[in-house]
TrEMBL record:
Pfam entry (one): BPD_transp_1
Cross-referenced InterPro entries: MetI-like, MetI-like_sf
Alphabetized CDD domains for the sequence: TM_PBP2 (cd06261)
Domain ABC transmembrane type-1: 73-279
GO term, biological process aspect, one: transmembrane transport
Protein name: ABC transmembrane type-1 domain-containing protein
Coiled coil: none
Membrane topology category: Multi-pass membrane protein
Annotated transmembrane regions: 20-42, 79-99, 108-131, 161-181, 259-283
Principal place of residence: membrane
Amino acid sequence: MTDAALPLAKAPARPSRERLVAVALAAPAVLILIFLFALPLAKLLAASLTGAEGLTFVEYGKLLGTSFYLGVIWNSVRLALYTTGIALLIGYPAAFALARARGPVRSFLLACLFLPLAASVIVKAFAWTILLRSDGLVNTLLMAVGITAEPIRMIFTETALIVGSVNIFLPFMILPVYTVVAQLDPRLSDAAATLGASPVEAFVRVVVPLTIPGVVAGVALVFSLAVSAYVVPTLLIGERYPTLSTTIAKAYLLARQPAFGAAAGVVLLVIAVATVAVSARLAKLGGAK
């Protein structure tokens, strides 16, 4: 009986070996995350809290205690809210159209969705400046059909900024929603109809709740990208609409105030991380239902 029990005593060694293998495989990725993300972020935080007299919160007081910079923060958040809301209104039905398309039509729509991602943000923003300027295509068409007698000022306005931002970040809303919608069983609406639900009721009470994870992911992506956008506001509206990103660039490149730029970067990072955390929580609650 004693000899038969010996092999059983060695059984717990396998989980330890598997754990060591898992740690060894994860170590390179962990080191990359530490050196490329954790350490730079720690350095950014330290720079925002370091002054001539050591630890200080002066830069945060300047950023969060003045009406101008509070307005700058609100400009970034407002741009992200407008962009996310409009992108959701356009991207949600577009995702359904893409999921319901078949054959060459779906291939064409996917190409239209992915090809713009191959171009840089700078190229797309410059394209909008060409379209919206006084002698651009939009004004030319408006005057050609008789809607306006003279060019309308479009470039360097908040409307142009929002239009360009929505156009650039729209694919990041469509793709997560499309991924979820494509996995839905099309017979769900028929099943709801057999239980007496109207088409609208079946869509609202059956289909929409199942797409919440994709919506949450799309909202998190678009909001995080829009709130931290730098190229789009710089090219489409310039100094008329200061944002956190443009403020950070000025602090580092022009004003030579790295501590203030670091503080603004930390605030922007907190906003982005909070958005992702809230979105993850909402996705978890939606999945639990």
